[in-house]
Design brief:
CATH class of the largest domain: Alpha Beta
Low-confidence stretches: 371-379
Distance between the termini: 26 Å
Order of helices and strands: EEEHHHHEHEHEHEHEHHEHEHEEEEEHE
CATH architecture of the largest domain: Alpha-Beta Barrel
CATH topology of the largest domain: TIM Barrel
Helix content: 25-40%
Mean pLDDT: 95
Radius of gyration: 20 Å
Largest sheet: 10 strands, mixed
Number of domains: 2
Oligomer: single chain
CATH superfamily of the largest domain: Enolase-like C-terminal domain
Shape: globular
Length: 379
């Protein structure tokens, strides 16, 4: 069996970003499916996939680690990492289909048949007032979710925002979190994502301000590229911390594994190197007794792909679900995305277990971006 073609498919979602899917075709009639959304530049991503196709067309798709090594050395940061990750997902799908087993069987089998989800309501919320956040969180809970995440710090834009006093830029964000906690009650888990918009001393103050909100975790108060600052924050705030959503490969997680930087690691199957590296990162995290809560503000393909890994991970905690982004999300794949009462049901169908629903794709497809910036990819 040989790889014959790599096909990107871009689906228009919202002004906050599209979903990008990758099909890896073979001469045996088996096609693998992966997701490459949120690379930060879809045009450059497509150009990178074209370059990767030149490298791997004609290769055996079952040689997953060989292909991963061939592609992972390409320089280009998040763009190339996302492209590698999508191809890797698709290759595991091909292998599972070829052998007639679900992907999770290739990782030793599932230890759980369904995965607890948390509803990330941020991409749904248009009314960014405390009341708007609270209403969205309440609706997600009414649909069966037992955990919710919000990204409340809209005002933290740029390095010059006010950090102290009554006019501190973080205060409206704290008000939003307090409103959500009041709306959903004490029995529902609540996490917040800061998108790395603070500096360490500010993050410690904010973390202490939020103590009464009983947070499930405090995510990325500073960027993951500052592990020493994250470690200081983790020692100084009264709730668990989480980070590393954009880190690539187990080697990239090295600072988070040698010392306890945060309490929860968040590898993203779209950026961390795919399913190959998701497994390695989770295994390494067990050495430090760290929980894995995969980052996944993604389309349904990344969600079901992550599920095949997460269901085998002993130290798995919970999986992110991009709640309320578009009302046709579940129908974009077939069978329909299996979310029930805040849980994702794990597929036992060979490979990934899902195909794109081309009728829904056609209704929302965006022309593949141009490749004018492909010279930025260094091979």
């Amino acid at each position: 069996m040989k790889i014959t073609r790599i096909e990107p498919i871009v689906v228009e979602v919202t002004e906050r970003g599209d979903w990008v899917f990758v099909l890896v075709h073979t001469d045996a009639g088996i096609t693998g499916l992966g997701e490459a959304s949120h690379s930060l530049n879809d045009a450059l991503l497509v150009a990178t996939l074209e370059i990767f196709a030149d490298r791997i067309v004609g290769e055996d798709p079952l040689a997953i680690r060989k292909i991963w090594r061939m592609l992972s050395g390409v320089r280009g940061g998040r763009i190339t990492h996302t492209a590698v990750s999508a191809i890797d997902q698709a290759l595991w799908d091909i292998l599972g289909q070829h052998l007639g087993v679900p992907i999770h069987a290739l990782f030793g089998g599932a230890v759980r048949r369904k995965l607890r989800l948390y509803a990330n309501v941020n991409r749904h919320v248009r009314d960014r007032s405390p009341e708007g956040f609270a209403a969205a969180a309440r609706q997600a809970v009414n649909e069966g979710f037992t955990a919710v995440k919000v990204a409340p710090f809209d005002e933290l834009r740029g390095p010059d925002h006010v950090r102290t006093g009554s006019k501190a830029a973080w205060r409206p964000g704290v008000d939003r979190v307090c409103a959500v906690r009041a709306a959903i009650g004490d029995e529902i888990d609540l996490a917040i994502d800061c998108h790395g918009r603070m500096e360490a001393s500010e993050a410690i103050v904010v973390g202490r301000e939020l103590e009464d909100c009983d947070l499930m975790w405090y995510e990325e108060p500073v960027k993951h590229t500052f592990p020493d600052q994250l470690a200081l924050i983790s020692r100084s705030v009264p709730m668990p911390t989480a980070s590393a959503e954009s880190v690539f490969a187990v080697e990239g997680f090295r600072p988070f594994l040698l010392e306890r930087v945060v309490d929860v690691l968040m590898p993203d199957v779209k950026h961390c190197g795919g399913l190959t590296e998701m497994q390695s990162i989770a295994d390494a995290a067990r050495l430090k007794q760290l929980l894995i809560a995969p980052h996944n503000p993604s389309g349904p393909v990344a969600t079901v792909s992550t599920a095949h890994s997460a269901c085998t991970i002993p130290n798995f905690a919970i999986l992110e679900y991009a709640w309320g982004e578009v009302d046709w999300r579940a129908d974009l794949i077939t069978p329909r995305e299996p979310v029930q009462d805040g849980y994702l049901i794990v597929s036992d169908t060979p490979g990934l277990g899902y195909r794109l629903n081309m009728g829904v794709v056609t209704a929302h497809r965006r022309e593949v971006p141009g490749t004018a910036d492909s010279t930025k990819v260094q091979v």
